[in-house]
Amino acid sequence: MLAVTTTATPGGELHVTQTADPVPAPGEVLVRFEASSVNPADRKIHSGLIRPRIGEGPWVLGWDLVGRVVDGDGFAVGQRVAGMSAMASTGRGTWAELVALPARSLTPVPDAPPAAFAHLPLIGLTARQAVLDLAGRPGERVAVTGAGGGVGSLVVQMLLIRGISPLAVVRDPASPPGIVSQLGLGVAGIEALQPGSVDAVVDAAGVDVGAAVRNHGRYISVVPGAPRTGLAEEVFTTTVRVAEDGGHLAEVVDLVATGSLSLPPAVDVPLREAGRALRSSTPGTRTTLSLAADR
Description:
By secondary structure, the protein is α/β, with parallel strands linked by helices. It folds into 2 domains: 2-119 and 266-294, Medium-chain alcohol dehydrogenases, catalytic domain (Quinone Oxidoreductase, Chain A, domain 1), CATH 3.90.180; 123-239, NAD(P)-binding Rossmann-like Domain (Rossmann fold, 3-Layer(aba) Sandwich). 22% of the residues lie in helices and 29% in strands. The strands form 3 sheets. Strands 3, 5, 6, 7, 8, 15 and 16 form a 7-stranded mixed β-sheet that branches. Helix 4 (121-134) packs across helix 5 (150-161) and helix 4 packs across helix 7 (246-257). Residues 1-21 are annotated as: Disordered.
């Protein structure tokens, strides 16, 4: 089968190569790849900043997956599913023609174009967990960094669904990202945040705004290792650890399918050109990889 592999070392090469088909273990489902996406985590792994915990490499890259079931219990053959592979932990990526994942990691998706859901699993599960960890209440002042990005844009929408009007922390308040303007969110520059001015922060950009959280507030980060200095007394802090979970993903898929959540715009790139997709980056735009674009 065709697969995109990396050695996960600085200066290492990305290879589009032929590898053996995976053999699903008990409890796993074999899925034929239709689409995936490029996440910042893929770039970090390929560059060696993050090294998968299992295996010696080369590793197949990729976290997100949309495809059709080939074999396995719990789903019908030919059924379209989506899932996330926690690649940094498992060493098992999704940029391959065939992918074996635990059935519990997958959920059915509507029979729409595969790219419509290709960049949802990782950012959707991460945003969902961040909002749950936040445990926000209507009327609270919640600042969200990276509100125009993949995770941040979903976080602000999920907060609005819960009756919370977030404050979008952006680099240039005079020219906020499109989704921030569309939602009519309040905006503030990083430097404009006053100490103790918000009840909580969801940091989706790795930006240090810890001083802005009031005493006994909450600081939720989705960026491992991101700085958080100047915290007030007894501020609850946590870093989101996203896990494979088809049930949780089903909730997010439903929000997108019903129009309650909007995903960032995406550019479709052939899977064979994954190297080009890793090198390119357009602010506010995601990149999907698909076999359809190869044809």
